[in-house]
């Protein structure tokens, strides 16, 4: 009777547990799982097996297995009572049951494991305002953690006035009062780009009238710019590297072969048709004068304006084979070509679009692939198309070469005369030299605009 009472009690207890389990299952995933998803963890609804149920199932299967095998071997018989044999058999049973338990776990969990594709299983979350947590496994194209201090807010001076768009509380990219500046953004030069933007805002009389056009090949830099410059007027344009990759040839420096270096060739296509003029700037410079002065440059009948350096040896920018063949060198007949640096240009986009200069640049890049007529990267095609037809701009707007030559990156001095823009063209970059504790003297002029790192 006692034995029957225990069995009935056990049956009732099992029914009660099954009923509770079914009631829990009807509601899908429990609230605790939903809360976990707000911490950056993704859980699929199919995975409704609780950890407690799993443990109970494994314990039941393991005990049943041991009981069955024990009965099979009849451990209580006199033949098997010897301690050594009994211990060996029991050890074998425990090991087998352990393997069996592991197999059951994999079978039960396999649907849940398959429901997490890598992109969803790899997540990062902010645990608090400053502490960042990242899963060790990263997506293939993830960016390193970059942190910049928030810039001060720069306001227009009273004499700037307000356009109709600004009075109505919104600014359109087509607002004719805007100064348009195009800069590339990429991880390697991001620190330089942020410093360039910071310098422009700091020295502008009307910083709220400056509109930035950022050219990117990575898709997750916009939020970083927004957090660093909360009031900045800007738009991000994605440049597809494959557009130009097949046209790029090897150069004296690998950095010059990056597709984003050629994005400037496509500004007329990327920017809105209402944008009629743009200042293109490299990422390794700072502006120490009002950018509006450069914006108002008179281009006359020319398509681009830039500081020219006619004393430079122009022939060195092309190979001996180029100069020996008239079909190539003849392009400069009737022109007085001078070297100019493409890191600072004022571009008339209306004329560019009308003439179709992008196609002309691409044509020279195709010739380079087959005939090797120059050794540098994106500069020579511009010289071939525009040299001798450039609206001259004062040299103060491109004190270039501060990064040294393209190999050693040696220190250099400023050119004689006034300075409105400092340009670290060449292989040496100021942020790298400052970090390595081996700066050049002029790198100290770049440092005040650097927003990299946490504020102290």
UniProtKB/TrEMBL annotation:
Give the keywords, sorted: Glycoprotein, Glycosyltransferase, Membrane, Signal-anchor, Transferase, Transmembrane, Transmembrane helix
Specify the superkingdom: Eukaryota
Q: What is its EC number?
A: 2.4.1.-
Q: Does the keyword Cell membrane apply?
A: no
Localization recorded for this chain is:
Endomembrane system
Keyword Nucleotide-binding among record annotations: no
Q: How does it sit in the membrane?
A: Single-pass type II membrane protein
- Top enzyme category: transferase
Which coarse location class applies to the principal site listed for this UniProt protein? membrane
UniProt feature coiled coil, ranges? none
From the UniProt record, which GO molecular function terms apply? glycosyltransferase activity
Q: Where is this region: Disordered?
A: 1-28
What the entry lists under Gene3D superfamilies is as follows: Spore Coat Polysaccharide Biosynthesis Protein SpsA, Chain A
Pathway(s) it belongs to: Glycan metabolism; pectin biosynthesis
Q: List the biased-composition ranges (Basic residues).
A: 8-19
Regions that span the bilayer: 86-109
Q: What's the short name of a Pfam family annotated to this entry?
A: Glyco_transf_8
One Gene Ontology CC term in the entry:
Golgi apparatus
The family this protein is said to belong to: Belongs to the glycosyltransferase 8 family.
- What is the name listed in the Swiss-Prot or TrEMBL entry for this protein? Hexosyltransferase
Q: What is the lineage of its organism?
A: Eukaryota, Viridiplantae, Streptophyta, Embryophyta, Tracheophyta
């Amino acid at each position: 009777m006692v034995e029957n009472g225990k069995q009935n009690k056990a049956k009732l207890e099992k029914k009660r547990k099954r009923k509770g389990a079914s009631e829990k299952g009807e509601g899908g995933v429990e609230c605790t799982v939903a809360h976990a998803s707000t911490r950056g963890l993704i859980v699929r609804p199919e995975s409704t097996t609780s950890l407690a149920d799993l443990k109970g199932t494994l314990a039941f299967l393991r005990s049943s297995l041991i009981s069955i095998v024990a009965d099979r071997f009849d451990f209580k018989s006199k033949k098997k009572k010897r301690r050594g044999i009994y211990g060996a058999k029991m050890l074998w049973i425990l090991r087998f049951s352990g393997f069996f338990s592991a197999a059951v776990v994999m079978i039960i969990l396999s649907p849940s494991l398959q429901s997490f594709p890598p992109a969803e299983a790899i997540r990062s979350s902010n645990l608090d305002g400053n502490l960042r947590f990242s899963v060790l496994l990263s997506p293939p194209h993830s960016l390193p953690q970059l942190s910049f201090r928030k810039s001060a807010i720069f306001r227009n001076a009273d004499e700037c006035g307000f356009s109709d768009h600004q009075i109505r509380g919104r600014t359109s990219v087509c607002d004719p009062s805007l100064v348009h500046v195009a800069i590339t953004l990429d991880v390697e030069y991001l620190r330089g780009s942020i410093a360039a933007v910071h310098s422009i805002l700091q020295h502008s009389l009307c910083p709220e009238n400056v509109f930035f056009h950022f050219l990117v090949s990575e898709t997750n830099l916009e939020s970083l710019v927004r957090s660093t410059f909360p009031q900045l007027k800007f738009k991000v344009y994605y440049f597809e590297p494959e557009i130009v990759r097949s046209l790029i040839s090897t150069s004296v420096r690998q950095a010059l072969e990056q597709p984003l270096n050629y994005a400037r060739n496509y500004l007329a296509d990327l920017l809105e048709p209402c944008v009629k003029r743009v200042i293109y700037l490299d990422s390794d410079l700072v502006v120490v004068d009002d950018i509006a002065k450069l914006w108002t440059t008179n281009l006359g009948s020319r398509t681009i304006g830039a500081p020219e350096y006619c004393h430079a040896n122009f022939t060195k920018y092309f190979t001996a084979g180029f100069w020996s063949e008239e079909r190539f060198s003849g392009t400069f007949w009737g022109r007085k070509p001078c070297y100019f640096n493409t890191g600072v240009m004022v571009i008339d986009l209306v004329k560019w679009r009308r003439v179709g200069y992008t196609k002309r640049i691409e044509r020279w890049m195709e010739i380079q692939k087959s005939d090797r007529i120059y050794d540098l990267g994106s500069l020579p095609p511009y010289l071939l198309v525009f040299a001798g037809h450039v609206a001259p701009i004062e040299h103060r707007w491109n004190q270039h070469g501060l990064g040294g030559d393209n190999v050693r990156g040696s220190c250099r001095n400023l050119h004689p005369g006034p300075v409105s823009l400092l340009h670290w063209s060449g292989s040496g970059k100021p942020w790298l030299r400052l970090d390595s504790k081996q700066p050049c003297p002029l790198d100290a002029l770049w440092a005040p605009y650097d927003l990299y790192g946490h504020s102290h």
